[in-house]
């Protein structure tokens, strides 16, 4: 592989594109909002006027956008990327999307004689330059083998869970687990604050106890201090992921009461106008703010 296109230059997409460029690939970039590509162009990337322009002749295309609607627009909209891909091109969808749309996009890619992989991102923006990003991949084995060097340019570990769709299934379940843990943390902190215990000792105990998962330890200090800046992951995106997980569970006939309760907190926080705040602001639901 030589020429790579990256569609979407948000916090994640920008860092992915920067790493791909550093790895020596020829890079083309497209972002719906103008001005995000300036630094990448200075480093040697070529900016494209449309998704179609970005992907023409590319060996692989990496898409990193916010939701199903954005993904459909970038692949199928006016000057959409899919119709401009060449046979044999590897389509790599890194956005967190509904399982239904991922499978539909995979089928459309097959019709174009393209290879397809869903590669959910297991980490925040800092995990890419920090070299700790995990990828949750669904792809044919041959496709996975072909794209692994490219994936390794912006991730530390690549887990293949099965055929297209399997990576996204795991990604949604992964985010559900994070949401449930942080929701439980919000309740635990509320009880601790009401009980009058020494919160400094409570923090040390939680950081060093059996509850000290990365989801807890990375969010604990901010939630204890009611500090939600800088915004690393907006509440609207976690709520979107929870909605996609709910849809996924319904389609499989599985009831998820714990996940449903956590999703309810996200909905309640969104109703308060907190969608653009860091999603851990759910802790404020218990403080009455």
Write up this protein.
InterPro entries: 6-PGluconate_DH-like_C_sf, 6PGD_dom2, 6PGDH_NADP-bd, HIBADH-like_NADP-bd, HIBADH-related, NAD(P)-bd_dom_sf. Residues 3-159 form the 6-phosphogluconate dehydrogenase NADP-binding domain. Keywords: NAD, Oxidoreductase. Pfam families: NAD_binding_11, NAD_binding_2. It is an enzyme of class 1 (oxidoreductase). This protein is an alpha/beta fold and 289 residues long. It has 2 domains: 3-163, NAD(P)-binding Rossmann-like Domain (Rossmann fold, 3-Layer(aba) Sandwich), CATH 3.40.50; 170-285, N-(1-d-carboxylethyl)-l-norvaline Dehydrogenase, domain 2 (Orthogonal Bundle), CATH 1.10.1040.10. Helix content is 47%, strand content 14%. It is built from 12 helices and 8 strands. It has helices at 11-22, 38-42, 51-55, 68-76, 99-111, 141-152, 166-195, 199-207, 214-217, 220-224, 235-252, 257-271, and strands at residues 3-7, 26-30, 46-47, 60-63, 90-93, 115-122, 134-139, 157-162. An 8-stranded mixed sheet has the order 3-2-1-4-5-6-7-8, sandwiched between helices. Helix 7 (166-195) crosses helix 11 (235-252) and helix 11 (235-252) packs antiparallel against helix 12. The protein is globular and about 65 Å long. It starts with a strand and ends in an 18-residue tail after the last helix.
Total number of helical segments?
A: 12
Which CATH C-level class of the largest domain is it? Alpha Beta
**Judging by the overall fold, what is the CATH architecture of the largest domain?**
3-Layer(aba) Sandwich
State the secondary-structure class.
alpha/beta
Largest sheet properties: 8 strands, mixed
Note the run of SSEs as H and E.
EHEHEHEHEHEEHEHHHHHH
**Total separate domains:** 2
Q: Proportion of β residues?
A: 5-15%
Quote the average pLDDT. 96
CATH topology of the largest domain: Rossmann fold
Q: Can you list the strand order of the major beta sheet?
A: 3-2-1-4-5-6-7-8
Total E-strand runs: 8
Rg on CA atoms, Å: 20 Å
Domain 6-phosphogluconate dehydrogenase NADP-binding: 3-159
Enzyme class: oxidoreductase
Organism: uncultured Spirochaetota bacterium
Protein name: 3-hydroxyisobutyrate dehydrogenase
């Amino acid at each position: 592989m030589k020429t790579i296109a990256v569609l979407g230059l948000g916090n994640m997409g920008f860092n992915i594109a920067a790493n791909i460029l550093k790895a020596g690939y020829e890079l083309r970039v497209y972002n719906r909002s103008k001005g995000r590509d300036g630094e990448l162009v200075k480093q040697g990337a070529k900016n494209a006027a449309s998704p179609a322009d970005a992907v023409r002749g590319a060996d692989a295309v990496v898409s990193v956008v916010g939701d199903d609607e954005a993904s459909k627009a970038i692949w199928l909209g006016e000057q959409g990327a899919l119709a401009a891909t060449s046979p044999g091109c590897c389509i790599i969808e890194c956005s967190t999307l509904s399982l239904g749309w991922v499978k539909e996009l995979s089928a459309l890619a097959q019709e174009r004689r393209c290879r397809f992989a869903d590669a959910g991102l297991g980490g925040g923006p800092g995990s890419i330059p920090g070299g700790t990003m995990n990828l949750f991949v669904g792809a044919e084995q041959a496709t996975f083998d072909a794209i692994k060097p490219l994936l390794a340019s912006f991730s530390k570990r690549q887990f293949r869970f099965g055929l297209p769709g399997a990576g996204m299934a795991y990604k949604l379940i992964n985010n559900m687990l994070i949401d449930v843990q942080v929701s439980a943390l919000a309740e635990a902190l509320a009880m601790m604050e009401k009980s009058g215990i020494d919160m400094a000792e409570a923090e040390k105990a939680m950081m060093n106890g059996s509850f000290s998962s990365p989801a807890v330890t990375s969010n604990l200090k901010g939630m204890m201090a009611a500090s939600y800046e800088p915004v690393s992951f907006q509440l609207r995106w976690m709520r979107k992921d929870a909605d996609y997980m709910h849809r996924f569970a319904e389609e499989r006939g599985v009831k998820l009461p714990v996940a449903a309760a956590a999703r309810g907190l996200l909905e309640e926080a969104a109703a308060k106008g907190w969608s653009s705040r860091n999603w851990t602001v759910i802790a404020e639901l218990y403080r009455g703010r």
